[in-house]
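Q: Convert this sequence to structure tokens.
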Amino acid sequence: MSKKDSELHYDTNRQKENLLGTIFLSVLSVLFIVIGVCMLFVQKIQIVYLLYAIAAIIIVLGIGMMIRYYVRQAYRNVHDYSFSCGALLVILGGCGLVRADELVKSVPTLVGMLVLILSIIMMQRALQILSVAKLCLTADRLKAMPLSKMLQAGWIAIMILSILTLIEAILLLCGVSAITGRIDQFEYWALMISGILMLGSQLISEIGVRRFTKKEAKLLARIAAEAEQKTDEEEALQEQKQKDQSEEMEA
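A:
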């Protein structure tokens, strides 16, 4: 396989992985919103059904990690344990389904753990956008791109959303009743709001990264075309010199 074919294969795998991750997180966020809305506004829904939903989400998380392990070919890395973590989540989710009736009193803690996971994912998204913004500012080939300002604003917005979600998780996990006790069914509001914030952060991240990659591809294509043109001119000039030297020697 040539270097060009290898790079193309890598880019294709990366695009598939990004698409799979986007779909997975979007579905997860929608599930959070749907569960929160149902528990808040639909009458006669028992808490045990929420526990079944949380256990199902944990199982979905685990299956997603296991699928991602193969899609990104993580088995090439000896120290990548995403498959093991995914299998662990599937087992924990299964145990949650079996013991749901006994976990009713721990709903705020369980919801807090799920919200905490979302907040950490959003923080990673913010750092991703920040890294891309720094690339725009520091790389010579990208200095002409005005996209860096938008990315700077994007990572700040996502970081603010992640901090808000983290605060929700801390309030639930630490049981700060002085705040949570004043809001009826606070855990369900937190679940729904965290899903909405996650969707918002994903939208900001996807728009920023996609615009960056498109502009980067155009810029790199222009640089490659200019380099090829320069090489052709140099070769033509060299051929002309050789031709002139041959004519002088014949004369």
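The chain is about 85% helix and 0% strand.
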